[in-house]
Amino acid sequence: MPADEDDAVQPALTREALARAALRVLERDGLAGLSMRKVAAEVGVRAASLYWHVRDKEELLDLLNDALMADVEAPPRTGDWRVQLRGYCERYRAHLLGRRDAAKVVAGRLAPGPNLLHLMEDQLDRLREAGFSAADAAMVSYLLGAYVQGFVLQEQSPMAAAETTGTGRRELADAAAERFRALPAAEFPNLVAMADDLTGPDLDTRFAFGLERILDGLAALLPPERR
Amino acid sequence: MPADEDDAVQPALTREALARAALRVLERDGLAGLSMRKVAAEVGVRAASLYWHVRDKEELLDLLNDALMADVEAPPRTGDWRVQLRGYCERYRAHLLGRRDAAKVVAGRLAPGPNLLHLMEDQLDRLREAGFSAADAAMVSYLLGAYVQGFVLQEQSPMAAAETTGTGRRELADAAAERFRALPAAEFPNLVAMADDLTGPDLDTRFAFGLERILDGLAALLPPERR
DNA sequence: TCCGAGCCCCTAACAGTGTTAGGTGCCGTT
DNA sequence: AACGGCACCTAACACTGTTAGGGGCTCGGA
């Protein structure tokens, strides 16, 4: 049984090939279904052989983490800082949303790989050019990262649940609203009254809302003529 | 062998007792070391018996999730909306930081338990009182949740690493700065130049920075006289 | 008083997990 | 021709979540 069509192109079993194989397994079976044995099979090898190239499963996940960051496209370098930063966050979110369980893999993983480093470099460069101080730029980068990772982490779990249970996102949101409405009104007056507000707006507009608030807050850091 | 000093106080094996046991195992062995067998042992029972009270490990984690949210103390209901909201986020962060792997457990877990519902209720109430519209209040709650969860998730992983490797946080940050400085300056000019800015400020000030930016952005939603 | 029902726990096992020890063939160098 | 190390292998270990089936225990009804 041919294990992998890459074998012709990439006969050597490198760490990069391992990362790509892990990426395919992740896409197929999700993070919970990603095992050393499956990744090994994907490259046509038995599990123990992976430990020649990689110390741990943890190290393989680090590789996978960087592979996940491979093709995040940076926004065009046109327009003011606000549209560029917005573009960055939107594309980053879309990228994570597009790969299965990406947020869970990325979440809380230190040791940024080369791909992420390039992204940071580019982002910091634009922040400096926009007029943010070095100290502020570093903080802003951290802030934006925390927001979009946190957001995607929360929105991607229901996506996975919807996939496995077969229910659509609209039905899931409606069910959530129903749960809020069913709460005892004496104890949770706001949750009951705001059930629609809490579950109604789709995640795109929720993400955009938060992002615009943050950008508003960042603008106050700049001298008035550069806002 | 006595399994648990709670046995005298709480002889019945309820779901709540299970959640508390899981909490103790989490504190002792971390999320990776939390197994059904260990939780069972903690309540003086064998693993298979847990499945009488709980469908899944997933369901046990839902219970654990809510147990984790048990004693987050709300800030005093004094001062303007800004100090109250800031207090909320700071306490929430401190609470998560105080329990081992809390962020990883909470991250991306849908189905809020009763404890979290009470928190949301209280927070929404204050937002409404501050003058935010129902739609805005719902969005703001979501935004703040994403930010602090995302932030704590990123900062708690190094804490775990520091614990297991025995190195202090300061040394860890210094090592990170060193890695940035060692990068090829032609490819990563900003990362190299800003190494200190990126790793220097401690996480408390980084968290506060992002939070103040967000609060600034939220203020713009309110009519000028209520800011 | 006996009997069944349901609750709550048990043992045993299954398939699968990460990881290590030790062995084996091949390939380039000396 | 012998050697060293690279890159794989088999076999096994301890552990995981989960299920099947069984056994007491207590209760309500006949």
Describe this structure in words.
- The structure is a homodimer of 227-residue chains.
- With 227 residues, chain A is mainly alpha-helical.
- The first copy, chain A, is 68% helix and 0% strand.
- Chain A has 13 helices and no strands.
- Chain A has helices at residues 6-9, 15-29, 36-42, 50-53, 57-68, 81-98, 102-106, 114-130, 134-165, 169-181, 189-193, 195-199, 203-219.
- The longest helix of chain A has 32 residues, at 134-165.
- At the A-B interface, helix 8, helix 9, helix 11 and helix 13 of A face helix 8, helix 9, helix 11 and helix 13 of B.
- Chain A binds a DNA duplex (30 and 30 nucleotides) through residues 13, 35-37, 45-49, 51-53, 56-57.
How would you concisely characterize the structure shown here?
The structure is a homodimer of 227-residue chains. The first copy, chain A, is mostly helical and 227 residues long.
Notable traits:
flat; 68% helix; DNA-binding; mainly alpha; homodimer; disordered N terminus; 227 residues
Any chance you could write out the topology, listing elements then pairs?
2 copies of one chain form a homodimer.
Chain A: H1 6-9, H2 15-29, H3 36-42, H4 50-53, H5 57-68, H6 81-98, H7 102-106, H8 114-130, H9 134-165, H10 169-181, H11 189-193, H12 195-199, H13 203-219
Chain A binds a DNA duplex (30 and 30 nucleotides) through residues 13, 35-37, 45-49, 51-53, 56-57.
